[in-house]
Protein 1
Amino acid sequence: MAENPQAVILVDYPGFNLRLAKTLREAGYKGKLLYYISPQVWAWKKGRVKVMAQVLDLMICIFPFEKDFYEKSGLPTVFGGHPMVDRVVTLRRNWKREPGLVGWFPGSRRNEVKKLFPVMMQAAKAIRVKVPGARFAVSAANEPLAALMREMADAAGMPEARQWVEVGTVYDLMQRCQAGAVASGTATLEAACLGLPYALVYHVNPITYLAAKIVVRIQRIGIVNILAGREVVRELVQGGLTSARLAQEMVSLLTDQARRGQLEQDLAAVTAMLGQPGAYRRAAEAVLAAVPESLSS
């Protein structure tokens, strides 16, 4: 490296950054290699952690259980807390949860929406049989996805579902709805931090799912359940995701106040594990503590 920096901070994106770290070491770089937003190698390719321990000087992780995982390999690790905690502070509003309002969160990718939204529409029909006053709102990540959902509603013979679709209100919906179904991904953690009683939903091409099962070595796919070490949030995955089962889960959350309250408590306990606000500040402090004194002074 022409400038020979005292430290290099690698942020997320393991496919590129781990190759970069290894290349730097092979080229003779002697400075500090620090990694922020730890790769989820605990879920896939655990063997990579050995290479990481050889080339990195410090890992700054965002989930508490990752600290022990990385340190067992000999890689010094700091738990800085999750940036989502800071983000939620800016997202919270004084919404009151609306009885009977179900939120559908089918994801931000076209293929996700095409798989999940039809199941949600059919579930809505069954929910209204059990809870006649139930209402529905669907979060669309952008206007093209909103248009797709409106088209799907027409094709399914449910033109009323067109009126459910909202764009740009995802975080407000997560705070207004009494219950919801959230596509697997970052949104499930956002929903948990905002206190939404929800079920995780996931459905992909069967071949893709089988391939992922071979690579991913964890029992649960929801980060809330991984953090808790048990099923806090119901996971409706692949063949387990049907309109009947989704409806049953939503009816339970809408009508069973004790269960809904317990889930809200469990979500609060799990998200408390993510640390206090100030994740970026703590990460910066960890970097300064790791680099030579001349750089941190």
Note: The first strand starts at residue 7 and ends at 11.
Protein 2
Amino acid sequence: MQHKSPHEKTASAKLTFVVLSDAEKPSRSFKASKFQLTLIVLFGIAAIGALSVVALINTPLGKLILPSYFSTQEEQLQQIRSLETKVDAVQNQLSYLAAYNVKLRNALGDSVTGDSGQVEVPQSEMADQSSPDQQVPPEETSQGPELAPRTRPVEVMSRESVHEIGHDILPLIMPVQGFVTRGVNYAIQHYGIDISAQLGEPIVAPAPGEVVFSDWTLTGGNTLVIAHPGDFMTIYKHCERVLVPVGTVVSRGEAIALVGSTGTTSTGPHLHFELWHDGKNLNPENYLLMKN
């Protein structure tokens, strides 16, 4: 049996590469072992990697592919300042929304203390209220917002100052055609007026504003809240149906709901209408253009 020499084994382990050419030039060939071929491939990969790194560093391609890594220190500082500005703006917006949410929930009847937990009632409004001895049916006494704790006025606010602040929306027009059957009475925690009207009668916006609440509440039934210029807010309870969703900008006299008798405290078709300014309850009868 014939045995191959080590030189012949090495020669047989090499790979032969043939480069074909046209008819005028002869073909060329070269041989390389597997080890040599591996070195060539690794060198090619290393060369391509080095060229890629050089291209990323010295051309705009690096900032395009890896902006956070190849951006300069000044650019990073500018990005940090921009993010800090955005965070501050978001925090300010959240603080404003939190304070506004406390006022809104208090007006809707939730027991939210917020910063002070007080119901502020101008003294000029209290002077027009009924005597605490007035008898009221038990089912009607809880129509007003349930706030805790309840205190007497902490700030004096005249009607003239209210009109001066709300010159853009005051006086208000009647939200519904009907008769006022019950007024504001702080002794029984009734923070609005009841306007008796036919079932399904249109309720209109007494002033321009934006709808900030439009949903169901247990005692108020279908309830609507509109924010007006000058930090005024009006509330409409016991609606049969609400016609405008949250975020709708309404104009004076635009239909917003229908008179109903929804909610646990309603005893018949009517509108419970409240007026607030900056967390303070106002008597709507003092600011309506006309009343029946």
Note: The chain has seven helices and twelve strands.
Protein 3
Amino acid sequence: MDDKRDLLILGGGLVGMTLALAAARKGLSSHVVDRADPADLTAEGFDGRASAISTASWNLFTNIGLAPALEPHGCRIESIAVSDQLKPGRIDFQPATYEGSLGRMFANRTLRLALFEAAAAEPLIAWHAKTEVAARERGEHAVSATLADGRTLRAALMVGAEGRMSPTREEAGVKVAKWQYGHRAIIAGLEHAKPHGGVAWEIFYPAGPFALLPMRDGDDGSHRSALVWTVDEKDAAGTLKLSDRAFLAEVEKRMGDLFGEIRRVGPRSSFPLGFHHTARVADRRLALVGDAAHGIHPIAGQGLNLGLRDVGALVEVLIEGMRLGLDPGDAQLLARYERWRGLDAFMVALATDGLTRLFGIPGRTASAVRRFGMAGVQRVPAPKHWFMDEARGVSGDVPELMRA
């Protein structure tokens, strides 16, 4: 039987599966192909990473019906503190100025569990897990993927959502600007004596940012935060090999007494930090989303949110086109998606890259200049509003699915 669907989504991670669910809520069917085993991706300890979900991204999860499953497991970000080495002159983004919280923190495992459970129950999603793609074809009227077991899946539009090393993007010949920062992000969970109060801390040191992100308290009442510590590539292996006691001593040196005694550190992991951005996010019957299109420094926690914004825009473009009788792979629709997402994603990528370089300039003079500028932003409401609207994802042309 020919099971041709609207979308052929190659990559079933956080962005790819969110796209499939958002499309399904609007009546679009999809094949989702992913090489990974869902049981591995949702196993305890597989991935200690956590993600900051912006206001706009939370609206997306709410509008596609995921909020009830996620809400009990998230931690609201009530305020954000930005500091240069914990010296005077920081910026405090207070919640009273904005509607609701400034976002929510979730363990990536929690997001995957909710997405996978919803996808498994959605008849418009044909989920092909633990599956390798042997060949891809993009014709004039349809696209297809031949799987390693010989099956062929067909659709109107192919979507590359496999992440930074997207084979779909490479096979399409899409040019990519990219570079490495020479840094690694070390990820770990912390348990500490004092409550975090919902404050997300971004502390900048010359070697890179040191982020403390609020997580939901444990069932035993323990106070928890997620650590994202950027270190020089040459120091990463040694830092990961430190004993828990030595590692905690280094962490406490950088965070002072913000959370009191650090009582426990969870398993540590790391990943290299780099930048990449594609010359275009659409081609003939092909759209790129998430890290397949753009990879940025985690300095502002916008990586996943940028990909979810791709999801909202692509679904809106496709639905409006189909109301006019256009095929999901129509060149006019993909051109609109390109115009909408290409520049916006590029500007966010440039901003995060610029911040990384600005706060990486060593020396007392550079630190003093940064703190002077931050103190100025702290005193003037207008730039604070602008920065927070950007962080919350509510500035510019926001997709309908990402509005309250």
Note: The domain at 5-75+103-178+274-362+397-402 is CATH 3.50.50.60 (FAD/NAD(P)-binding domain).
Protein 4
Amino acid sequence: MSSGREAALLWLGGFALRAPLLAVPPLLPVIVPALRLSHTEVGLLTGSPVILFAVAAVAGSLLMARLGVRRALAVSLALTAAGGALRGVGGGAAMLFAMTVVMGAGIALAQPTMIALAAGERRLGPARATGIYSNGLVVGEVVAVAATLPIAARLGGWGWGLAVWSLPVAVAAVAVLRPSAGDAPAARRGAWWPDWRDPTTWRVGLLLGCTSAIYQVSNAFIPTYLTATGRVALVAPALTSLNLIQVAGSLLITAVPALVGRAGAMVAAAAVSLAATVALVALPAPVAVLAAAGLLGCAASTIFIQGLALPPLLVPREEVSRMSAGMFTISYACGFAGLLVGGQLGDRLSAPDAPLLPVALACVAAMVLAAGIRRPEADARCDVAAARHA
């Protein structure tokens, strides 16, 4: 398969794993009154996929060990497409919740397989391949948030607004089954379970967990912070800046794959994230708030993408799936914990910026964790060569 076609598949796979997930928040103002959902039910609807990401990632490694990368990915994407398309059937809450669980399980299974697919890219190089996949993730988030509500209005209901995002998932599921040289099982039989005693798995998992906490907590509590400080008009622009400018981070890693695995680059990005968090709270000017939010999203996304690309650089190819499963389990658990801590701080402390404290702490922790990453020089040279011949 040509490098261009493989790059398109990686990008589409990333897009397909985020667009169906991010289609829900824009439709909540329509879904909540239509189904009479409580705040708890809304929390379950938006939070259940995140919990599944942590729980089911290991099952994705097992699936690869049994079926191979591409077949496992096709099964995962088919599950995602089916769940995403059926969420609005019947227009009831029971089907919405049940199919959201099915969709979340499919995405959870697919995530480690996408990392393994990128790890096997010899023409693009693992770092550039992961950058392309991650760019698809980010663009999927932005496009779904921006386009879902208008699409639902045009198609005649929130169910159709959710179902439409299963189309690119189904296309990706079919495309990934095209034969490719070297498509072997991603892990040796019996080597699918993460090695929880491996310090590298924990270091990379916690590094990704820090970026997950930064992203989840920022999206959840920047609106409450701005509202509490009397700047409600800045909520939508700040969230747009936070999420949209992530695209720049993904493009940077795609263009300069040699940055992946460089401790200095990751420490610098974490430092920029910390500075942006402080500026967001300390600088009252609207333009400063929007710039700080955008810088925070861009810097955090570069750490996230580099973390995704680390497994094929740090362990043999046959170990990538089990390490990826372990790091996803750790990272999403950290993101969920960050939300809980931020919420508790907001409830217990009177300061409006208290819920954002986990963001600052995660930035500091990311600097410490990134400083211990050591990328083999041979892999760095391979990625540079792949970039020159792409």
Note: The first helix runs from residue 3 to 22.
